[in-house]
Specification:
By secondary structure, the protein is mostly beta strands. The protein has strands spanning about 10-20, 30, 40-45, 60, 65-75, 75-85, 90, 95-100, 110-115, 120-125, 130, 140-145, 150-155, 160-165, 175-180. It is globular.
Amino acid sequence: MQPARPLLPDTTYQLRTSLPSSAGYSLFRMQRAQAGSKQLVIVHRWRVSSTLPDTQAPRWTATPTPVRQEYSENSEGINNYVLFSFPVQDASPVLVRVTIRSARLKAPVISYLTPWQNQLGIGWFTCDGNFTFGPDEACTATFEALDAASNRSQATGRPIPFRGPTRPGQGPTETSTREVEPFVTRR
């Protein structure tokens, strides 16, 4: 998204997006559209700071790679995720648009990620998530960084192949959490 006109410094803005209740999105703060309404909306609020203009696109210092994956069940739900490295440098905060594709899905899944502990999480995290992996599912991801000034840059021109977590008892080991070796496509 890009604003239609420049945002004013020291001004608070709000973006409201409504989603059907069946969409299952709750990664962002949701609230009722109106008091007593059943319609939920996602609300993003931010304040524009007074800084020098950010005219440079985020810079990827390397290609994002899977660094950890986990499949585990607990009393609160299921963890079924892959964490990618976040090798980006920019003068302002960065949001990452990820497009995930797999043979199981007819359409790609697009999600916006906020870096967490210098990593990007794709999957399901106990109670919520952006993607549900099948056991050891082969997928690809493309990453595009968007900074606070709407500058964009893609991590690479090609989709990055990776595999979803192996479930305990279905893979070569019984452990559910593992460090990830880079996924290599054999021809």
